[in-house]
Amino acid sequence: MIFPTRIIQQLSHSFAYLFLLVGIVQAQVEKPRITDVRIGFANAYKLGCWTPVQVDIEGGSQALTGTVHITVPDGDGVPTTVVNLPNRPVGIEPGRTTTVPLFVRVGQSSAPLEARFISDDRKVRVSRTFFAGPEAGDGVITGGLPATNRLIVTLGPSLGLGDLLANEADDELSRTRLIQLESTADLPTQWQGYEGVDTLILSTSQADLYRPLLQNPARTEAIRRWVETGGKVVLFCGSQAEELLGSGGALADLVPGKFSEIVDIEQSQALETYSGSEKSITPDRRVNFQVPLLTDIRGRQEAIARRGPQSIPLVIRSYLGFGELTFVGLDFDRPPLRDWPGRIGFLRKSLDWGNGIHSQSGASDTVEVSNEDIITQLRNVLDQSFVGVTVVPFALVALLVVGYILLIGPGDYYLVNKILKRPEFTWISFPLMVAAVSAGAYWFANWQKGDQLRVNQVEVVDFDVSNNAVRGTTWTHFFTPQVNEFDLSFQPALLGQGDAPENQHLVAWLGQPGYSLGGMQSSSGQTSLFDRGYKFSPELSAMKNVPVQLWSTKTITSRWNAKAPTPLDPALSRTDEQLLGGTIANESDQTLEDCVLLYGQWAWNLGQIPAGLTIDLSEAKQPRMVKTLLTSATAGDTTITNTASDGTVPFRLAQEDVTRITKTMMFFHALSGGRYTGMLDRYQSFLDMSHFLEQPDLAILLAKSSNPGSQWFDDDKPLGSDEDRHWVYYRFLLPVGPNEQNDSL
Which UniProt keywords are present, listed alphabetically (predicted)? Predict the structure, then answer.
């Protein structure tokens, strides 16, 4: 017995030493740390929009490979998670800091952000929560800006844009925020990072600031793609144009023409006239500016200087894809332009900053001005438009609650004491009443709201006929009668061509701007019953396990683009009266309904264009003003006869009509939308194509289709029912040639 006892003692000591050694080794293993998170542009970002985020991870004592996960709430307060691409695993080295770029979509102004690193063995190696505050700091990120703010991001030497905002109303929801970036490294590498940016301004007098873009062309490509999908860039480039705009230059893709050479201009009159200022740039009005000379210019030349017989465009209002591109061939950060009193007027006009809600003109009726975004109105109308789903009025709910209280209180007392005269029966009557009322309430709610999933969807598909580019935007509002989780994916569709080939699309939830109930800016925020939340695919093209509560709705959106042949064959040219002539052929197999052709300030009502038919504008009705036709009595889903003196329908009568709201969003500026609606158009402003109506070489054909359009899927099943409602609109950018008669002379 002594021998086994001694062995057991030795084994016990060995195990003790082993456990001690393991404990020492584990104590010496240092975990990685998440040291910082930077979100947006210099910590500024809009709620409800994709925005860049960078996570700094300091390596521990072990080399690890894995993925970074970031979780933030959506507009309903449900946690959402994004993760880096699986083909780009994150490697963490001991003693080194790794920066991981991602894109997030924050839905609440005071929302925390949780960052995690999960290694390849699926273990959470480090996790840290950053809380929202007024300023970024250790463990703190800034809260998001309202979706209705105007976010202006500038890169390069300061242009003094703050002077333009001196008299701006100090309203939290409609303010303009100026963000100055210090380096091109602060620019996103993918286009969706700019979704919350209203305007990107590039000032280029310091060329060395932009040279790193040549080593990382992904940042320039992201800017170009963002503009093509509806973004807006203003490029100030004078003396450094040869390096930056010439062949192979860092910004050559953002020029509305081809760089030729640098020339000198000595007269300032063109600048002073454009700004509307009576103050001269110099006392003798003689200057010496180096400006770029462009050829093959695309767009409208707004300011032109003379150099002998030569015309030098100084301000060009152009376009790139579906977005806006403004080129200013001057360096406004240098004297004497920097000190010129007329600088503010010049910058305001070139930046097109005179389009606020209080500055738009042309409305025929007076509306109450609010800071609500027009997308909120569209959401509200879609919410009230489900087939077979009735919204119970609050007054009826209150009445039923009062009746319930009277039934289980005085009613029960009267029943058992006055009629039955057996008070002890209340132990039976009371629960029976509660059960009966509960069953009745469930039956009534089910009768009002139905037991089927319902989908209301609005889609706008834009075709650029010149280069076969297609852009689509879809807003989908769906109702579910039961608690459910959805694995949502999206398949874009083209007019008469089925599914869009080789498309690229993003999906997301759509928030509600503002402080109202359910708004992203609400101080209390939404409280969700779902703690687990849902997850975006790494490519942001799908959402997995999206939870929706009983008898509730969810609003989701998709933005997509593709290359596809255009189903129209236009042959349009300008006439002597600056109108349009020519033909448009519908080569698709679908009928285009409610067609309106827009050019400049004029619009033609073309009615239907059947499949395979060619229409001649010489046979069309006389044109009307764009605003008059787009807001006329017959411009919506229903006819409204109560029009204003100029033939337009006041928005207070049109705000329950999906087609009228969507048309207003599609041409908000052209309709003087701020004054017409009393609302803002900031959250989905990329949809507005009013700027193309200022281009002499482009026209827009607006049409409606009875085709259901693009399709959402829940796992592999179509999301929807037989009683869904779809509103599908198409816009075609059509090239317009010069006057043929003038060319032949």
Answer: Membrane, Transmembrane, Transmembrane helix
Would you state the pLDDT for residue 360? Answer: 42
Quick one: pLDDT at residue 210? Answer: 98
111 and 151 assigned to the same domain: no
Three-state DSSP class for residue 457? strand
The answer to whether the beta carbons of residues 56 and 97 sit under 8 Å apart is yes
Alpha-carbon distance values, 13 to 22, 56, 397, 561 (Å):
14, 44, 74, 69
- Are 341 and 279 contacting, i.e. CB atoms less than 8 angstroms apart? yes
Residue 692 shares a structural domain with residue 607: yes
C-alpha triplet 184, 190, 191: angle, nearest 5°: 100
Q: How many domains does the chain have?
A: 4
Q: Which amino acid is at 478?
A: F
On whether the CB atoms of residues 573 and 738 are closer than 8 A, the answer is yes
Does residue 320 fall inside a structural domain?
yes
Question: Are 135 and 262 members of one domain?
Answer: no
Residues 219 and 321 in one domain: yes
**Is residue 195, in this structure, part of any structural domain at all?**
yes
Q: Which of 632, 703, 641, 697 is nearest to 666 (CA)?
A: 703
What is the model's pLDDT at position 419? 81
* Domain-embedded: residue 151: yes
Supply the pLDDT for residue 355: 44
Provide the β-strand partners of residue 489. 542, 713
What is the pLDDT, as a whole number, of residue 15?
A: 53
Q: Considering the domain boundaries, does residue 7 fall inside one? A: no
Q: Which residues does the chain have with pLDDT short of 50?
A: 1-3, 18, 20-27, 355-365, 742-745
Q: Answer yes or no: do 634 and 579 share one domain.
A: yes
pTM here is 0.89
CATH of the domain at 36: 2.60.40.10
Half-sphere exposure of 629 (CA within 13 A, CB side): 22
List the beta bridge partners of residue 200: 153, 233
Residue partners of 505: CB distance under 8 A and separation at least 6: 472, 490, 492, 541, 558, 559, 560, 561
Closest-CA residue to 381 (of 672, 674, 659): 659
CB 142 within 8 A of CB 136: yes
CA quadruple 432, 434, 436, 439: dihedral, nearest 10: -140
Same domain? For 174 and 163 the reply is: yes
Element (H, E) at 499: strand 498-499
- Is residue 332 within 8 Å of 343, Cβ to Cβ? yes
**Residues 232, 138 share a domain:** no
Q: Which domain holds residue 440?
A: 394-444
- Quick one: residue 410, left, alpha or beta (phi over 0 = left, psi -120 to 50 = alpha)? alpha
CA distance 470 to 389: 35
Regarding whether 233 and 121 lie in a shared domain, the answer is no
Q: Say which amino acid occupies 98.
A: T
Output the DSSP codes for 598-662. EETTEEEEEEEE-TT-EEEGGGSPPPEEHHHHHTSTTSSSS------TTSPPPHHHHTT-HHHHH
CA dist 188 → 50, 53, 221, 433, 573 (Å): 11, 9, 10, 62, 40
Residue 242 burial (10 A CB sphere; 0-12, 13-18, 19+): middle
Type of residue at 399: L
Q: What is the pLDDT of residue 667?
A: 98
615 neighbors 608 (Cβ within 8 angstroms): no
Extract the runs of DSSP E, i.e. beta strands, from 255-359. 258-267, 286-295, 300-307, 310-320, 323-328
Bridge partners of residue 223, in order along the sequence: none
Q: What angle do CA 359, 362, 364 make, to 5 degrees?
A: 120
